[in-house]
Write a structure and sequence with these properties.
This protein has 22 helices and 20 strands. With 592 residues, the protein is an alpha/beta fold. α6 runs parallel beside α7, α15 packs parallel to α17 and α19 packs antiparallel against α20.
């Protein structure tokens, strides 16, 4: 190719033009300056056959044999293979007997699918010098591959995530200095990347005989929980328990946003049964002390219980579809689907009488996209449902009273569960839907001892502080402070919608009439006349609290036909998707 440029061009400029054009057209370029008959610069295109750094040097004559890995690389690969074997073989055999996967097989389960990839591992050679050069052999307890902890990056269901996983064959997954260092680095890198963190836990706690150098240090095991706190609300932290996580290891599950335990496999407790016996004299096994049933029903520390390892992965795969990578992003949208049951059945599902029980899920199934309902902590505080779902493909968090359980009255455990769920949804930009049908917070001496006021305060605080879009539906009863906790008009919802069955009041008609008119009614001697008057008073009271009166007084925004509820909510969530709310300037609140 020949090119002529202006006579004023310098030799350097001519060379630059020639080089650029040769690279662009893939051919030799001759550059002529002005009217010259001879090219000022000739630039030959380099197709890779010559040494580009030194064009005058002949390429080396190399054979395939010359380019094969040397013994040095082969030795390294052998060491890597040895590390991948984990701890002593007999401990791997014990895993198989208990139907538990070896940690690297577990990572293959998690990151070996079509939309998954194990990207890299950090610190594979951690503690290598402590065991490998001595040639201690496979069957000794001195093997410390990766120091019993694997960390790295992976793609899970198409999403990049950080992960850690204990190797139970290495000293029961216990934590020591090098493993702790890897754990901390993984957390700190997650703060920088803004990507979710998976904790695949199977640890007996700190390695007591090696505690010097990692327990109380500034960058020791205690820093785990500091980093958990810094990550909290920044990126989703999801923990799955595969074994008995005791003492320090038990804090990671409760610091995580979501915790999944596996039946007949996992447990967590502040101390082992043997330590409990030493301290308190109590005889108890690990299942009774901290098994899945304990934490799913009694403590509320477990969000979900998996049937086996495969099921645990499936649950996390579902869960992460409702969550963004971090607090700066919105949750991913899904494909819209019609509800499982027709919305036309909603009015028939809700009983006419306010004290008659029914299953709120029969309403939910007529509102949310089919197959999208994903409940958390179903066995804890069951009078409130907390679940992720989708409406028209848009992720939402549902907080719903459950009249089928304890009449939907709010007990301390349910209030605590709801508060934490609201807080988590708000952290990760998941809009909230409140479905209200409650007689209010439960009264009585036992619930006072259990802290009903404290738990109720936290639920109301979470509702007050949430800045995500909120929609509240008065399905039926909204009595007492229940309407406050359930996102009532005073709590800055984008909308308060009433169904024709709705009522808002300090208390129900029966309790109100008894409180106000008990003396006057007792003065009526004729039982029939007394019953007639009581009925009249109840009807008068009910007219005052009826949802039509609330709409007339503009307490609520709208009454809608129940069969249009799904359509109405879809429109309102879409309309308010980008609503901006702010909180007063402060470091943080004091109510947790």
């Amino acid at each position: 190719m020949k090119v002529r440029i202006a006579a004023e061009a310098t030799d350097d400029e001519a060379s630059a033009v020639a080089a650029a054009l040769a690279e662009h057209v893939g051919d030799t370029v001759e550059v002529y300056v002005g009217d010259g008959d001879e090219p000022t610069v000739v630039h030959e295109f380099d197709d890779g056959s010559t040494n580009r750094s030194h064009p005058d040097r002949e390429p080396p004559e190399e054979t395939d044999a010359d380019l094969e890995p040397t013994d040095r690389e082969r030795r390294l690969r052998e060491e890597i293979e040895d590390i991948a074997e984990g701890g002593p073989k007999r401990y791997r055999d014990q895993l198989e007997e208990g139907e538990k996967l070896f940690v690297r097989d577990r990572l293959e389960l998690w990151f070996g699918g079509e939309d998954d990839e194990f990207l890299f591992e950090d610190g594979r050679f951690a503690a290598f010098d402590d065991w490998h050069p001595d040639g201690t052999g496979e069957e000794t307890d001195d093997r410390l591959p990766a120091d019993g902890l694997i960390t790295g990056g992976a793609t899970f269901e198409g999403r990049d995530v950080h992960f850690m996983a204990n190797d139970y064959t290495v000293k029961r997954g216990s934590m020591a200095a090098k493993g702790v260092e890897k754990f901390l680095r993984m957390q700190q890198r997650a703060l920088k990347t803004g990507r979710p963190v998976f904790y695949l836990m199977d640890s007996s706690g700190g390695r007591i005989d090696q505690q010097t150098g990692f327990f109380a240090n500034r960058e020791g095991i205690g820093k785990y929980y500091y980093n958990h706190s810094m990550l909290s609300g920044r990126v989703p932290q999801i923990c799955v328990l595969y074994g008995p996580c005791i003492a320090g290891a038990a804090y990671t599950p409760v610091f995580a946003d979501f915790t999944i335990m596996v039946e007949n496999m996992s447990a967590m407790a502040i101390a082992s049964p043997r330590m409990v016996r030493m301290v308190t004299g109590e005889e108890i096994d690990l299942e009774e002390l901290g098994g899945p049933k304990v934490h799913a029903r009694e403590s509320g520390s477990a969000d979900l219980i998996a049937e086996n390892e495969e099921h645990a992965r499936e649950l996390v795969a579902q869960l992460i579809t409702y969550l963004p990578d971090n607090a700066d992003e919105k949750p991913p949208r899904g494909e819209p689907r019609p509800p499982a049951d027709s919305p036309t059945g909603i009015d028939a599902v809700v009983p006419q009488h306010p004290n008659e029980g029914y299953d709120m899920l029969d309403v939910v199934d007529r509102v949310v996209d089919s197959g999208s309902y994903f409940e958390l902590r179903p066995d804890y505080g069951a009078e409130i449902l907390t679940a992720f779902a989708r409406i028209d493909g848009r992720p939402i968090g549902i907080v719903a009273n459950q009249p089928a359980h304890r009449a939907g009255a709010i007990f301390p455990d349910a209030a605590e569960k709801a508060a934490e769920f609201i807080w988590t949804c708000d952290a990760f930009n998941v809009p909230l839907l409140y479905l209200c049908d409650t007689p209010g917070f439960m009264a009585g001496s036992q619930v006072e001892k259990d802290g009903i006021l404290e738990a109720g305060k936290k639920m109301i605080y979470a509702t007050s502080s949430a800045t995500v879009p909120k929609q509240t539906v008065v399905v039926r009863k909204a009595y007492g402070a229940g309407i406050y906790a359930m996102g009532g008009p005073a709590y800055d919802p984008e909308s308060v919608i009433g169904l024709p069955s709705g009522e808002i009041a300090i208390m129900g008609p029966e309790a109100a009439i008894n409180a106000v008119y008990a003396r006057k009614l007792s003065e009526i001697d004729d039982p029939e006349e007394r019953e007639r008057r009581e009925r009249e008073l109840r009807e008068e009271y009910r007219e005052d609290i009826d949802v039509h009166r609330m709409a007339s007084e503009v307490v609520i925004d709208e009454i809608i036909p129940p069969s249009e509820l799904r359509q109405e909510l879809a429109a309102r969530f879409a309309f308010y998707e980008d609503v901006e709310k702010s909180l007063p300037r402060k470091k943080h609140g004091t109510i947790i």
